[in-house]
Specification:
The protein has helices at residues 2-31, 41-47, 50-71, 82-103, 111-149. The protein is an all-alpha fold.
Amino acid sequence: MKKKILVRSLVGAPVGLTICTVITIIFSLIYGNGEYYPVTHELKAMCRSEIQAVILQTVLGMVYGAMWGGASVIWEIENWSLLKMTLSHFVICSTASFPIAYCLQWMPHTLFGTFRFFGMFFAIYAVIWFSGYYAMKKQVEQMNNKLKER
């Protein structure tokens, strides 16, 4: 299990970096008026230089991806219920996501900003979870139908 977590974390790190980079490109396309903004203005001000902010965001983006990658092994624990897997995965991912989002200035540092972050996080998590759940349910139904045909 530990080896699987390590391998998934190592695979997740570059995925996290890629996602962070793609997000900066999307935000720059939307808000940049033709300019590329690799980090938020607040993070750049906090780090006192753009390159330090980019380095911090790169490292934490890789940590973010590694954490999600490592947490994915939860879905393979066969003796856990779906509820236990979902709650464990959600708690691990949200608790790890919040300090990274806070540190990288991806959210306002206010009570409202915190609630908004968790609300958006929960909504996105729920959409992804339900999409996966229904896709898996459809696969199971197809396998059951094939078994009935035999």
